[in-house]
Amino acid sequence: MPKKLAVVRVILFLRRLKMNKTKNPSLSVVLATYNEEANLARCLESVKDIASEIIIVDGKSTDNTVEIAKKFGAKVISTTNKPNFHINKNLAITAATGGWILQLDADEVVSSDLAAEITTLISNSYQLQAISSNNGYWVNRRNWFLNRFLLKGGQYHDPTLRLYRKGKGRLPAKDVHEQAIVDGPVGYLKNDLLHYRDKDFSKYQEGFNRYTSFISIQLANQDIPINLLSAINYLFFKPSLTFISIYFRHRG
User: What are phi and psi of 32, to 5 degrees?
Assistant: First the structure.
């Protein structure tokens, strides 16, 4: 009888262990890529130890992006490269299976302090039986420009909503600079995400041309009247207010 009881106890223990492992809210890191061989390895290196899976939706890159992704064990989904890459990010979010999702760009790096903070957070959300009501978290970004991180001109803290529970967050996919929409309350993380955005001026100009082209299409779809008042507003009034805000208010 004692032996049978011991065996039953072992079986029950293993079942509970299996159930706990299933319920543990693991972390899925998701990205959308297109010709990111210069950035991707550094990004994935920063999350390889905290991610239970890496999902990458690639827009048919012509460089070594896919090969680099597979070296890190990422699941790669191939599709077309869309003007609004948030559409492909949503595909990655849908494919993710972890309890938490960390959405990144290929030119971003999760600092070691941020990685530790995220690991602690998702671990506690399991151990405390999800007592915390937050379904998402904002994280501050440090944006690199040419030879340093920008801390003025409105470039910092640059908060972005990147970490959320599975099924609670998604991108509207209407704008290139939009934030995720999270169902439920959100909190703030303390440590920074490093964004190596513009390492040279040609990279900055490439992004500038892409974003302004996309915005011009948005403006065209808004049926903004073309008249003298509209011209004054968009050519003089809005640029002047933007300059005053960046240069004086944010000490740019």
Answer: -120, 135
